[in-house]
Amino acid sequence: MSRRTLFCDIDGTLLHAPGAGSSAFGDAFAEVFGIPVDMGPINFAGATDLRVLAQLMHEQGLAPDATREPLFFKCLPEFLERNMAVAPPEVFPGVEAFLARASSRWRLGLVTGNIKACALIKLKHAGLADYFDGMGGFGDDDGDRRKIAALALSRAEYPDRAFLLGDTPSDIRAAHANGMVSVAVCNGSLDRTTLEGAGADLVVDSFEAADELFEALDI
Questions:
Q1: Angstrom distance (rounded) from CA 60 to CA 58
Q2: What is the DSSP letter of 89?
Q3: What are the pLDDT digits (tens) for 58-98?
């Protein structure tokens, strides 16, 4: 089982948490840097937390700061936890049944732009934490999702077969850059035509219509 790994993105793939992460990001930035920011124009789809922070700092004319950046990533999970306690994320239809079936034969890991602490908070509040053991690559490992995926493979001890499940072209590129099979799910803002055009090896309309994926996974 450990020689076959299915890596999952979180936001837009497994669950939807409208505004919770963006709001936490803005609150943590104001707390640490003392500057209120408009998070509305920030697109988190396919992004990484390191790159979003770098973008915000650049827009505010702030130089890299080895003291305040780690403090920001310490505060961010605290604000996210507060938001999630009030408004838990919405799990997409069919996700839990899919993970239960997949986990019987495959090891499940994560490749996400969330820092690890935030990834685990989202999974906890979504009721999905038991399917994952915290192995993977995260948004505080690197700003480049391709490198995050490479780290996830390394931490999984380079499985014989690896799939990467996501909902954006960034996930597709990360999979192909590391020799993984790219599976795109049409849960997010992008449709089948766009994801197929981005080069996904397999596109599923939802986890409720994942028979083709089950066949590919041989489960």
A1: 5
A2: P
A3: 999 999 999 999 999 999 999 999 999 999 999 999 999 99
